[in-house]
């Protein structure tokens, strides 16, 4: 990880680190590759300037089941501050975490 991104990744008492996003995505990838692929597709298709909470509360037609699954999985794992995270930052971690799965990278290709 580049040194200039380390503080954003680790976080502080004032700012929740993005490591939580990476860990949740990786855990989902390991526990349920099929569901992780749905998450990856859903999150990758969101506008980068949107907030995570907005994407989950207002999913596109026919994608409510994926958004609800993400909301349920995140319940109690991330703070309200993390819900304000820009989708752009989530997409950043999708690309990195997705590299560790042949299945995920194959689906996005």
Question: Average pLDDT value?
Answer: 82
Using DSSP, what is the number of strands?
0
Count every helix, treating DSSP H or I runs of 4 or more residues as helices.
8
Structural class: mainly alpha
How is the main sheet built?
A: none
| Alpha-carbon distance between the two ends | 24 Å
The amount of beta strand, in percent, is under 5%
Return residue spans where pLDDT drops below 50 for at least 5 consecutive residues. none
Tertiary shape: globular
Q: Give the ordered list of helices and strands.
A: HHHHHHHH
Query: Helix fraction?
Result: 55-70%
Radius of gyration: 13 Å
Textual characterization of the structure:
The protein is mainly α. The protein has a domain at 45-109. Helices cover 67% and strands 0% of the residues. It has eight helices and no strands. It has helices at residues 3-10, 19-31, 33-44, 52-57, 64-74, 80-83, 87-98, 102-108. The longest helix is centred in the N-terminal third of the chain and has 13 residues, at 19-31. The protein is globular and about 40 Å long.
